[in-house]
Amino acid sequence: MQIKLNQLDSKRIEQLHDTMEINRVVAQLLNDFVANHSTYVTLPALNQLREEYGMSSEMAFAMLMSAACGLDTAQNQIHKQLFNDYFLPSVRSLSPKDYADDIYLKTIHLTPKTVGNISLAIKKYQPCEAFVIDDAVLSSDFREFPQIGFFTTEYEYPVLTISETESISLTPKYIDSAMPYIEDVRGYVLVHGLGLGYFPFMASQKKSVKKITVVEPNTELTEFFTTEILPQFTNKEKVEITTAAPADTYDYTFTDPWQKSRLSHLRTQKFNTLYTIFKQQSVVSSNENDITSYNEFIKLLSDNELVKQ
Questions:
Q1: Residue 219 and residue 243 in contact, taking contact as beta carbons nearer than 8 Å
Q2: Residue 253 per-residue DSSP state
Q3: pTM
Q4: Closest C-alpha among 62, 167, 161 to residue 116
């Protein structure tokens, strides 16, 4: 495979390279902010900006977050553009009301408890605490916007700890990411992994779902779940838990949702490979055809192409 482009398309590839580099820098800044400075923004500081400057909650949060990341939006025009192009589109203000009607949260009552190695706890997001609400959003020009969410009030969520290195949290991110799969599920369903049983519960509410087989190799987790959580299921007769998948045919299989963050990683890897070929004007042994236009180049970075890898 070779990449042979005209001058205009070559310039567009260089511009795309600059965009990918900015994506990397922004992702690094915001990942560090969430990991190490998630409580930097306080509700009094947020409200002060809102009251003094008439800002929205999201604008005020983005301003404070950008300051924590070292941006000087008042004096530095590059920083100001970075704020407008990346930081502001990355922020989402949430309300507990957005999740108050979730049928799992309304039906299943989870109380802190430890049995053996399994521990169930209730944690809280503090007002204005930053967390990842979704995977990065990709724009048509390949800018990637990390999705940082916050509440202006406390928000509680359950955490199931299975071992020192493994835990499952029923956060807004988990709930939102599961919704498309819940809408599609039907018939006889195979689920890999038990967790807090959110997907099996939601699937069991659908008339179109006949039976749900959950494969969970951790028998201690299964015992905890069947004692503490499964009895609260309104359609628990639809749910079967086993340590290995039976050799049956299923209409729908659910595993961990395919994360856009994984696609983002693959996209970066693919771009770096193609860009190296482009810069070095090299010939690479590959099943792929030669690339002779910008459109052919970016097609290889699309989600549809990346999931084939």
A1: yes
A2: E
A3: 0.85
A4: 161
CA pair distance 220, 217, nearest whole angstrom: 9
List helix spans (H) across 185-301.
198-204, 219-228, 260-280, 294-299
CA neighbours closer than 13 Å in the CB half-sphere of residue 277: 20
Angle between helices 7-36 and 57-68 (to 10 degrees): 90
- DSSP-derived secondary structure letter, 307: T
Write the single-letter amino acid at 217: P
Tokens of 207: 């008339």
pLDDT in tens, 210-243: 999 999 999 999 999 999 999 999 999 999 999 9
Q: How far is CA 282 from CA 1, 153, 276, 277, 279, in A?
A: 8, 56, 8, 5, 8
Phi-psi region of 172 (alpha: psi -120 to 50; beta: other; left: phi over 0): alpha
DSSP structure class, residue 39 = T
CA distances from 234 to 99, 160, 178 (A): 20, 21, 19
Could you tell me the two tokens for 21?
A: 């580099």
